[in-house]
Amino acid sequence: MSTAVSTQLLDVLSGAILLTAVLTLWRRDLASIIRLVTIQGVLIAGLALLLGVDEHSTELYLAALGVLILKAVILPTILRRVLRDSGEVRETAPLVNVTASLLAAAALTLLAYVLSGPLVALAPSAATRALPVGIAVVLLGFFMLVTRRRALSQVIGFLLLDNGITTTAFLATSGVPLVVELGVSLDVLLVVLVLQIVAARMRMAFGSTDLDGLNGLRD
Amino acid sequence: MGMLTSTGTLDPGGPAAAAILFVPVVVPALAALLAAVLGWRRWIAWGAVAASAAVLVAGVVAACATDDGSVLAAGSLLRADALTAVMLLVIGSVSVIATWASVGYIEGELRTHATTARGARRYAILVPLFIATMSGTVLAANLGVMWAGIEATTIVTAFLVGHHGGRRAVEATWKYVIICSVGIALAYLGTVLVYFASQHSGGADGADGTLAWTELVAHADRLDPGVMRIAVVLLVIGFGTKMGLVPLHSWLPDAHSQAPAPVSALMSGVLLSVAGYALLRYRVIAVAALDPAFMMTLLLVVGIGSVAFAASMLIAQRDYKRMLAYSSMEHMGLIAIGMAVGTPFAIAALLLHVIGHGLAKAVLFCASGQILELTGTTRMDGVKGLLVRQPVLAGVFALGIAALLGLPPFSMFGSELAMARATADAGLSWVVGLALVLLLIVFVTISRPVAAMLFGPHDDTPQPDTGDGQTMSAARPTSSSIPLILGLLALAIIGVATPLDGLLESAAAIVGTR
């Protein structure tokens, strides 16, 4: 593949990853948010595949396959199961409304560009120039985590954060060593499984997964 | 031992060394496997104690082998220097106390139907696994593997925090998993950036990045400062979360107060310090790669912030388990301040503090579990006249508090004094002054209500929410205090006879600077 084409593909993929993250803040319907996260998983796998083609690296092909299975198949399946069990289809009352969320997303993306200046400066290349996208997705995930009140939304926020970090890792380093990659993937999977079980317990104990109910422990 | 070489020392890279390094991970994991297959049995619970003792013994062997500065290694996966040995000693000794206390704890819960056979089995699986993940973390030669180990502790402990079920346990578990996972995810991003910097540290030929700690330390001065600055902030916030430092500390009082007492002992006594250990490893790299003042300022801010926040939360505290939790936060803050100073003397002092805090908190959390079982309440005003009702337990609790507040002969007296001196030597007298004021507040706010718990008029009216557990637990054998008394003895011996000084100096030489 010629460099120009792969650079363009890289930019398109990175842009799409950022777009899916912003759209999760726009949508209130939890099922479509899960769809967006799934698409984002596919895009990240595509990014790893593209970098693998560029560098002729078997390790990256494997990583791409792993990302695809984990982020586009297993994790969305778990999320859909939580959604089905909870019967709550919408994020009812986010602390920040949609318009303000989208404005915040714009501000956070700008912030990501400022923050990642030193990262791009260290090794300017097509991949590292797209690094701010990864950082922006991290910030957007963090934003979702602190402004949403449903247990499922918080889990999705955590997954966005993790997707952002994975994107950053691929763009900056063409992937961390495979051992570490495996450990990280396993951890994310286990965290989501643990959260799924805790959310189920929460429903039994509180009758809903509205996190405003979590106010029994204070000083 | 036949595996020792003729000179009597351990061959650092040989099979004997490798075996020693695998023991702290493999033996507790086997204990967990046994519990997974057979469920809760009394002898399996004692097996967990034996596994903890094996960790402690491996720690002692590693300490003897490394206190001259040598390094044990098992391939490129595991390594142990004097710092690792110190951490293994803490993990081993606190685990022995906690698993020993667990035997009586779970039996009591089964008797009063506070837990089911299934809950007991889960507990028997997860506690040894928890110990294995912590050992793996401190033994990891690679910073990526170390990160994975710390994250694994969150997963393993999630259901231990939620052991009791019910609204409060669910709430504590949710906060714990979400906040710690986010914190540790930030630490992962920091790790990725360190790897990125190492990929570009060797000029044109340096395309191979590394996360091996020794290699990173050797080339730390070549890492790009711009990238490292971002990485270090992420690492301090990330591992700081797991250590209970501001700003992502809010999980700590909830998780430590809701977890079963022996688990709180492990979480507070060692897990926090294991996260601190990760920061110690990264600090050496950060100081060489950046302007040293950057790391110092960062650690001072989170350290002083944590001590101040903990002191303020202790002022109106009415729950003794939450009081102990905030006290952990205060001590972790002090350790962060010691790390900020970072001279070998300060590091040796903070490691002694880690040991002292681990033992004292293990004793106190286990004792608080017995007080809870006895009185049915965690409110301090619900406990009166403990000295009359349970003299041994009350004595253990009182001595533990004395140790925690830094009174002699216990080792935290020496370590707090040494940290103060090291901080003053580094020209940070204002920090010492500030910390002393905060420690005075802590001293008063802890000692007054505890005195009321110990003395005070003996109240005979049964607590309303205990049910039939009251009569059963009133007859609790004093043998349950044995591990706690051993812990206090160890604290006093370390404080008076200072047997660990050589080891601590070697450890401090590894990660201390200037």
How does this model look, in words?
Chain A is mainly alpha-helical and 219 residues long. Helices cover 80% and strands 0% of the residues of chain A. Chain A has helices spanning 3-26, 30-55, 58-86, 98-115, 117-122, 126-129, 131-147, 151-173, 178-206. Chain A is globular. The termini of chain A are far apart. Chain B is an all-alpha fold. At the A-B interface, α5, α7, α8 and α9 of A face α5, α6, α8 and α9 of B.
Q: What keywords describe this structure?
A:
heterodimer, A: mainly alpha, B: 514 residues, 3 domains, 75% helix
State mean pLDDT of chain A (0 to 100 scale): 89
Task: Kindly report the oligomeric state of this protein.
Answer: heterodimer
Largest interface: A-B, 44 and 53 residues
Principal-axis shape of chain B: globular
Number of domains of chain B: 3
* Largest β sheet strand count, sense and barrel closure of chain B: 2 strands, antiparallel
Unreliable stretches of chain B, pLDDT < 50, 5 or more residues?
1-8, 462-475
Please report the distance between the alpha carbons of the first and last residues of chain B: 39 Å
Query: Count of helices of chain B?
Result: 20
Q: What structural class do the secondary elements of chain A suggest?
A: mainly alpha
Share of helix of chain A, binned: over 70%
Provide the helix percentage of chain B.
over 70%
Strand order of the largest sheet of chain B: 1-2
Give the strand content of chain A. Answer: under 5%
Summed up, the helix count of chain A is 9
What gap, in angstroms, lies between the N and C termini of chain A? 61 Å
Give me the secondary-structure topology:
The complex is a heterodimer of chains A (219) and B (514).
Chain A: H1 3-26, H2 30-55, H3 58-86, H4 98-115, H5 117-122, H6 126-129, H7 131-147, H8 151-173, H9 178-206
Helix pairs in contact in A: 1-2, 1-7, 2-3, 2-8, 3-8, 3-9, 4-7, 7-8, 8-9
Chain B: H1 15-38, H2 42-66, E1 72-74, E2 78-80, H3 82-111, H4 117-139, H5 143-161, H6 166-199, H7 213-218, H8 225-243, H9 251-258, H10 261-289, H11 292-315, H12 320-341, H13 344-375, H14 386-389, H15 391-404, H16 411-425, H17 429-454, H18 469-474, H19 482-497, H20 501-511
Antiparallel strand pairs in B: 1-2
